[in-house]
Design brief:
The chain has 280 residues and is of the alpha/beta class. The protein contains eleven helices and nine strands. The strands form two sheets. The protein has a six-stranded parallel beta sheet, sandwiched between helices. Bound molecules: pantoate.
């Protein structure tokens, strides 16, 4: 695996490869890699000649300084895992490489996607995600981009970003299913911060989502949502939101004929976990 730290070196290399007809798949990450990320690397390897992974803990998407400070960094282990899984290129940029001094800060019109759910509780988060992903896509210009469904809203936002920046004919976005621990907890870099007791409690999030999936057709959506809230709060979670939303627009929905997704964000102590399931 070759490690690139300079944006220009990487983009020169990849544009040369593109001219030769070599396809590239890209998996953007903030490191602390787990099986969810590695599944994306393997999908990219199956479908592209070159697989590029980036590791950059992007400061502009953290609306909570503490969360940024405590974001787990496990770079040596990450490099080993990437090599074992056959990743070809790791892009490991400094902050200056991603945000050079002379670069204007862009505003992205996300058509309401950034004001609901995560966007409501984490103002500015999706603008930060767009800033970094826009920059990474411009450097790497992959043929295929791989994201995990665990960050459902992020997948929608990045899909919108690809359209906004006119790359929809050049980059195809693949969203891979959430990878879970045996007890159902969605894999996440933040799980590393859970205490033993918190880790035992955490699968209740997925349990609640499964309860909603089994019951949303036999009770009213409002009722099933209220039960989900009180189940999680009863277990000691501090729930930011538990919503049933239109799976395309992410607007709350009570219409079972809509494509629906159940999405949740809840704190265990100071650690915020998110998860979702598609309902129909
Ligand atoms: O999902 C993540 O790890 C990040 O939000 C991403 C897409 C790498 C952008 O920093």
């Amino acid at each position: 695996m070759t490690v690139y730290k300079k944006a220009k070196d990487l983009s020169d290399y990849l544009s040369d490869q593109k001219k030769k007809g070599v396809s590239a798949g890209f998996v953007p990450t903030m490191g602390a890699l787990h099986q969810g990320h590695l599944a994306l690397i393997r999908s990219s390897k199956n479908e592209n000649r070159i697989t590029v992974c980036s590791i950059f803990v992007n400061p502009t998407q953290f609306n909570n300084a503490d969360d940024f400070r405590h974001y787990p960094v496990t770079i040596e282990k990450d490099i080993e895992a990437l090599i074992t899984n056959g990743c070809d290129i790791l892009f490991l940029p400094s902050e200056k490489e991603i945000y050079p001094d002379n670069q204007a800060v862009k505003e992205y019109d996300l058509d309401g996607l950034e004001t609901v759910l995560e966007g409501h509780f984490r103002p500015g988060h999706f603008q930060g995600v767009c800033q970094v992903v826009d920059r990474l896509l411009n450097i790497i210009m992959p043929d295929r981009l791989y994201l995990g469904q665990k960050d459902y809203q992020q997948c929608k936002v990045i899909n919108k970003l690809i359209e906004l920046t006119g790359k929809q004919n050049n980059i195809s976005l693949t969203i891979e299913p959430t990878i879970r621990e045996e007890d159902g907890l969605a894999m996440s870099s933040r799980n590393l911060r859970l205490s033993v007791e918190q880790r035992e409690l955490a699968p209740a999030i997925f349990e609640t989502l499964l309860f909603v999936k089994s019951n949303f057709l036999n009770r009213s959506i409002l009722q099933v949502k209220a039960e989900a809230y009180s189940f999680l709060e009863g277990k000691g979670f501090n729930v930011d939101y538990f919503e049933i939303a239109n799976a395309d627009t992410l607007a709350p929905s009570t219409n079972i004929n809509d494509p629906l997704v159940a999405v949740v964000a809840a704190y265990i102590g100071t650690i915020r976990l998110i998860d979702n399931v598609i309902l129909n």
